[in-house]
């Protein structure tokens, strides 16, 4: 898409009104306040990346509010992840608040009220992620909104480099449509990794169990295409009892069976929106990831993503 709005295109007295109107159209319904008494300046570039949107925004100071009544009036159900490039933003949501400095990430959930305040000019990169595409980990991300994540070390540094390089390629129009859908999947994985890496470190007593859980997750990933993959088969492969396997995952967000199903659905979802696989039927894709029944796959997909697989494919690929 490229340029969405540049307030320099209108007279100074009309610039802030233009910005508030466009903000509620391209983001979601918002209240925007100007905080400096001078002609306003802002510029927004937006790029489509498969089911995601990537924004490059430069703006004068504002206060932005997303209120409960606005959410009831319409909600895109986005998790929005921001990389601060210049200036600072104060982000608050639920009982959390952070001042985001250059090089840090922060996020917010469009389905809950939030406030973003700035005192001076700032520049950010933002990724708008449909919440359904972050399942089964979306609840984990929602618990971390309005909290800073370091973008200068570890996973954060990798995600920062990816985003900046991605923006450069989008600015230059050097990324084709087919490549964009694959890059979107990579970016979703990086968002998940960013917030997993920010989880509190495990205690020494828990490390032995953590290693086994990591091995089991890797085993699940490697055997998703096997229709016989199930908790009993996993327990036998790791020489543990089924009851011990269940106890290992008691504190997790999902049981072993739920993890298998969620991963299979996620892999199927990725292939459904891969333009290079458009000649394959929905069930050909589902069966490649271990689903034995078309009706079972359709019911499971609808329960997870709110749409049938065919409708989802059409909505994304047109």
What does this 3D model show about the protein?
Residues 200-206 have low confidence and may be disordered. α7 (231-237) packs across α8 and α9 packs across α11 (294-305). The protein has helices at residues 15-26, 68-72, 138-142, 154-171, 177-197, 207-222, 231-237, 242-248, 256-272, 282-288, 294-305, 309-317, and strands at residues 2-6, 31-34, 42-49, 52-59, 62-66, 78-86, 89-93, 96-100, 104-109, 114-117, 122-130, 149-150. The strands form two sheets. It has a seven-stranded antiparallel beta sheet with strand order 1-3-4-11-6-9-12. The protein has twelve helices and twelve strands. It is an alpha+beta fold. The longest helix has 21 residues, at 177-197. β7 and β8 form a beta hairpin. It is globular. Helices cover 43% and strands 22% of the residues.
Features:
22% strand; 12 helices; alpha+beta; 43% helix; seven-stranded antiparallel beta sheet; 318 residues
Outline of this structure?
With 318 residues, the chain is of the alpha+beta class.
Question: Topology of this structure?
Answer:
Layout: E1 2-6, H1 15-26, E2 31-34, E3 42-49, E4 52-59, E5 62-66, H2 68-72, E6 78-86, E7 89-93, E8 96-100, E9 104-109, E10 114-117, E11 122-130, H3 138-142, E12 149-150, H4 154-171, H5 177-197, H6 207-222, H7 231-237, H8 242-248, H9 256-272, H10 282-288, H11 294-305, H12 309-317
Antiparallel strand pairs: 1-3, 2-5, 3-4, 4-11, 5-10, 6-9, 6-11, 7-8, 7-10, 9-12
Helix pairs in contact: 4-5, 7-8, 9-10, 9-11
Report the average pLDDT across residues. 88
Distance between the termini: 17 Å
Oligomer class:
single chain
- Based on CA inertia axes, which overall geometry fits? globular
Helix coverage percent: 40-55%
> Topology as H/E string?
EHEEEEHEEEEEEHEHHHHHHHHH
What are the segments in which pLDDT stays under 50 over at least 5 consecutive residues?
A: 200-206
Note the main sheet: 7 strands, antiparallel
Derived structural class? alpha+beta
Gyration radius over CA: 22 Å
Strand order of the largest sheet: 1-3-4-11-6-9-12
Q: How many beta strands in the DSSP annotation?
A: 12
Strand content range: 15-25%
Number of helices: 12
């Amino acid at each position: 898409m490229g340029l969405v709005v540049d307030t320099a295109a209108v007279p100074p007295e009309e610039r802030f009104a233009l910005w508030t109107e466009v903000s509620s159209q391209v983001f979601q319904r918002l209240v925007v306040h100007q905080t400096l008494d001078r002609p306003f300046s802002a510029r927004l570039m937006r790029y489509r990346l498969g089911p995601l949107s990537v924004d490059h925004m430069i703006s004068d100071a504002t206060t932005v509010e997303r209120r409960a009544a606005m959410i009831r009036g319409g909600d895109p159900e986005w998790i929005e992840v921001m990389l601060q490039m210049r200036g600072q933003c104060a982000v608050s949501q639920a009982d959390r608040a952070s001042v985001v400095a250059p090089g840090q990430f922060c996020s917010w959930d469009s389905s809950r009220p939030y406030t973003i305040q700035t005192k001076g000019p700032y520049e950010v990169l933002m990724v708008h992620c449909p919440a359904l595409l972050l399942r089964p980990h979306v609840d984990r991300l929602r618990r971390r909104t309005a909290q800073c994540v370091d973008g200068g070390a570890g996973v954060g540094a990798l995600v920062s480099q990816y985003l900046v390089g991605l923006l450069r390629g989008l600015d230059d129009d050097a990324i084709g449509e087919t490549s964009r859908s694959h890059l979107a999947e990579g970016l979703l994985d990086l968002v998940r990794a960013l917030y997993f890496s920010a989880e509190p470190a495990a205690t020494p007593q828990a490390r032995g169990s953590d290693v086994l859980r990591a091995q089991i997750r890797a085993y699940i990933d490697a055997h998703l295409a096997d229709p016989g993959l199930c908790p009993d088969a996993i327990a036998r492969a790791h020489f543990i009892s089924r009851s011990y396997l269940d106890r290992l995952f008691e504190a997790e967000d999902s049981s072993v069976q739920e993890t298998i199903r969620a991963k299979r659905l996620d892999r199927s979802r990725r292939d459904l929106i891969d333009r290079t696989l458009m000649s394959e039927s929905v069930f050909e894709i589902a069966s490649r990831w271990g689903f034995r029944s078309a009706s079972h796959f359709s019911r499971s997909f609808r329960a997870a993503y709110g749409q049938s697989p065919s409708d989802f494919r059409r909505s994304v690929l047109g």
